[in-house]
């Protein structure tokens, strides 16, 4: 009896082991079929950026069926110009989370330069999911259609956008572009008129209006619009909540420097200095961080610290005219004219048209009693910048003192 029980137990155990093996194989195959997150070479990438990408990739590995996690990785890639990797992540995010309009919209943006037809398909899906709240996906789709010459489709979306927001300047600019492309010059002028007062549209609006006036046989009005276009500042980017979310994920040295500048401008000098000191530890070969820290110290009246930091900067980047110029300014401010003159000469060697360095060199030489060389330096500054008032005033002063 005991032998029969043992035999049955052995058979049962064998079956259980076999089932467990089959289960392990099935799970292994299932995991291998899961798409793997992109893994670009990060060896030469900014360490802050590399850490951000690695952290987002690890979250995808932990939650491979979570569309939002895939989308977040795509946004991190997109924020740091890994366009191909971003597109792959957004595609997977959309597959896993088809109701969210973020992913086809951002995927469309990642494709807009390389594959505009595919971009339009993505943007269309984004509009289907978002509707007109917000209106940005529909407007971006209309603009992309205009760029591709698909005017009738663009018009449908622009008219829908106008019904939602009749006085939206971006809508009016799109309708103005559409009218220009169709040769409807009077209509174009009407749509573009309110755009000339908007920082996001005025330069392009003036250019399009100049073309319309030219086609209508009004050259004087066209020249006036062209002049206004030339004088207008570069158009700002349109507000885009989707893109703004991406930009918040940017990391790296330039981001740190901008954050420090913002803190200093907001009178949070201690926090700005602390951030730069941490940045220098993180990026020991970044002369730009030391230059900014030196400027902060100079503004705070800490000239000794400023000189030390600028001296470190020229050791790290001895070919930087900016580093030598700033070092020279601090040295001159501390009354060490001979050292300052040498620093300004090194700045000029590296950037011969550095007008400010020529002028400062002239002042140093004048303090050292070499008036002829000082005058030469002031004249060199004027050759670089003929309307340079500081150089002109210095020469006038020298002529009076003769």
Summarize the structure.
By secondary structure, the chain is mainly α. Helix content is 75%, strand content 0%.
Strand content: under 5%
Structural class: mainly alpha
Number of helices: 22
The count of DSSP E runs of length 2 or more, i.e. the number of strands, is 0
Number of domains: 2
Overall pLDDT level: 93
Could you please say which CATH topology of the largest domain applies here? Serine Threonine Protein Phosphatase 5, Tetratricopeptide repeat
Structural Rg = 32 Å
Identify the overall geometry.
flat
> How many angstroms does the end-to-end distance come to?
129 Å
> What's the CATH class label of the largest domain?
Mainly Alpha
Unreliable segments (pLDDT under 50, ≥5 consecutive)? Answer: 25-32
CATH architecture assignment name of the largest domain = Alpha Horseshoe
Helix content, binned percent: over 70%
Biggest beta sheet attributes:
none
The named CATH superfamily of the largest domain:
Tetratricopeptide repeat domain
Secondary-structure element order, as H and E?
HHHHHHHHHHHHHHHHHHHHHH
Describe the model.
The chain has helices at residues 2-33, 47-62, 67-79, 83-96, 102-111, 116-130, 136-147, 151-164, 169-181, 185-192, 202-215, 219-231, 241-247, 253-265, 269-282, 287-299, 303-316, 321-333, 337-350, 355-367, 371-384, 389-400. With 402 residues, it is an all-alpha fold. The chain folds into 2 domains: 47-231, Serine Threonine Protein Phosphatase 5, Tetratricopeptide repeat (Alpha Horseshoe), CATH 1.25.40; 256-400, Alpha Horseshoe (Serine Threonine Protein Phosphatase 5, Tetratricopeptide repeat). The longest helix has 32 residues, at 2-33. The protein starts with a helix and ends with a helix.
């Amino acid at each position: 009896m005991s032998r029969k029980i043992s035999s049955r137990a052995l058979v049962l155990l064998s079956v259980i082991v076999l089932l467990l093996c089959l289960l392990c194989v099935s799970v292994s195959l299932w995991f291998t079929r899961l798409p793997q997150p992109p893994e670009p070479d990060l060896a030469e990438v900014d360490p802050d950026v590399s850490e951000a990408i690695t952290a987002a990739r690890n979250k995808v590995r932990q939650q491979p069926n979570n569309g939002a996690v895939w989308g977040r990785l795509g946004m991190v890639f997109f924020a740091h110009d890994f366009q191909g990797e971003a597109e792959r992540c957004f595609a997977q995010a959309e597959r896993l989370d088809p109701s969210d309009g973020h992913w086809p919209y951002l995927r469309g943006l990642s494709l807009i330069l390389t594959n505009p037809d595919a971009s339009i398909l993505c943007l269309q899906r984004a509009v289907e999911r978002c509707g007109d709240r917000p209106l940005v996906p529909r407007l971006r789709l209309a603009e992309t259609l205009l760029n591709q010459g698909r005017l009738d489709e663009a018009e449908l979306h622009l008219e829908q956008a106008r019904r939602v927001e009749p006085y939206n300047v971006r809508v009016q600019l799109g309708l103005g572009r559409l009218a220009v492309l169709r040769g409807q010059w009077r209509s174009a002028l009407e749509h573009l008129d309110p755009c000339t007062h908007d920082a996001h549209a005025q330069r392009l609006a003036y250019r399009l209006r100049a073309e319309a006036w030219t086609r209508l046989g009004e050259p004087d009005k066209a020249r006036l619009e062209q002049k206004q276009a030339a004088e207008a500042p570069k158009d700002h980017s349109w507000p885009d909540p989707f893109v703004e979310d991406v930009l918040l994920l940017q990391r790296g040295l330039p981001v740190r420097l901008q954050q420090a500048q913002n803190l200093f401008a907001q009178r949070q000098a201690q926090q700005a200095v602390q951030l730069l000191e941490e940045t220098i530890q993180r990026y020991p070969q970044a002369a730009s961080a030391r230059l900014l820290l030196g400027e902060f110290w100079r503004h705070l009246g800490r000239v000794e610290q400023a000189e030390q930091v600028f001296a470190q900067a020229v050791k790290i980047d001895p070919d930087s005219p900016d580093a030598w110029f700033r070092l020279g300014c601090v040295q001159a401010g501390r009354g060490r004219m001979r050292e300052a003159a040498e620093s300004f000469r090194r700045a000029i060697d590296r950037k011969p048209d550095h007008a400010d360095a020529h002028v400062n060199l002239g002042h140093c030489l004048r303090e050292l009693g070499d008036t002829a060389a000082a005058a030469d330096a002031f004249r060199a500054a004027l050759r670089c910048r003929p309307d340079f008032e500081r150089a002109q005033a210095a020469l006038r002063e020298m002529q009076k003192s003769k």
